[in-house]
Structures are given as C-alpha cells and as structure tokens.
Design brief:
The chain is mainly β. It is built from three helices and eleven strands. It has a seven-stranded mixed barrel with strand order 1-6-5-9-8-7-11. A three-stranded antiparallel β-sheet has the order 4-3-10, with no helix packed on it. The longest helix is centred in the middle third of the chain and has 8 residues.
Amino acid sequence: MNCEQTGSIIAISISKNKGEKKQNIPFACLKENFGIVGDAHSGDWHRQISLLAQESINKIIEKGLQVKPGDFAENITTEWINLKDLLIGTKIQIGENILLEVTQIGKVCHSHCAIYYAVGDCVMPKEGIFAKVLQGGEIKTGDKISVL
C-alpha cells in the first residue's frame, strides 16, 4: 500500500522585495541551503521556500476575493497535497532529484495583510508551510511533488 501524497506544482512565484505579492514565473532554480535564486526570502535560514496549497487559496476565493497564486507571497503553489497537516521534518520531493525539508508550519502574522482586511481571514499564517532546500535543481510549473 502506497500512502505517499502526490500532487503537482501549479505555480512558482518570486519577488525582489519582502512584504509584497510575488510574480509567477514558469520555472526556477532551487539552490541547496539557500532557496529560489532571485527571490527576496532566500538565504541561509529555515524559511528558504514557502508553499501554499491551491485548496487553501480556494477558501479565500469562496469568500469573494479574487486572488491567485503568489498573492499570499508563497513561492510554490501546489495541488492535491495536504500541506497544513505535514509535520516539521517531513521531506518533500519535487521531480526526480529536488528535496525539501519542512521547517515551519504557518507563521505569526504581525500586521494583517490586505487579504485579511478584505475578507477577515488569511490562509498563509495558518496553512502555509516553510522549508529548506536539501538538494537543489530546476523546477517548473506542472512538476510532480510528493510527500515522502
């Protein structure tokens, strides 16, 4: 019996500055112990990559707000993986060779974002996850992503 969760990457997003929506890009280079090359949040720390499920974004869409992948400042938007229930230390594989390790579930939202003020809720602090890059490489929209 295979209990592995498998889904796909539906968007990859980066920004030059922290605290802003990220722009979608078709592919990105993940560097070991760094994150996505060209993203403001990469570096030598535990939150190198952020992930959010499209299913979480859909909760905000259902409340009437028009949002899309990257609007929550997540780097990787997934589908078909229950990210919010993963445990710290869980390994995530992208494609054949890329390996991430979950380092944080959710985050403290010190100052509410525009999404929170528009609908009274935001999913990234509760359902987004953060990871560090254990093994890098190139990722692209549509890549398979699996929880190991």
